[in-house]
Amino acid sequence: MRKQSWQVALKVLVLAVAGHSITAGILLVIFPLWMLKLAGWDYTGQAFWPSQAGLFLMLLGSAYALAIRLRALIWFLIVSKACAFVFLLLSLVWLNAPKVVVAMAVGDGLMGLCVALVFWKQTRADDSA
Hints:
The radius of gyration is 16 Å and the shape is elongated. It is built from five helices and no strands. It has one domain (3-128). The protein is mainly α and 129 residues long.
């Protein structure tokens, strides 16, 4: 692929990851208990904590979207998805999280890996141009 094609692919992928996080965050803020129940969590606590997590997801998604203009934030996206992957798998083992966490971990891991690979390809295309 040409340099410009890799740049477009990276922008589209980053926007998709950002959109995923922002959408999940909005849903957690508006429907916190319903979202947890949908994911398989038996949560009987206050809605504040999952709503707060939703706010943080919206902020993360906004930072991911900024990665289109600020190259350093692509590394932030990649590292945060790697951390999410590890955290989710450890939560399954140590915090008795529901099994759906495996799918969430795989999803976050794949998002981070895809961004990393396309970023690497785009960087190599920049270097060879």
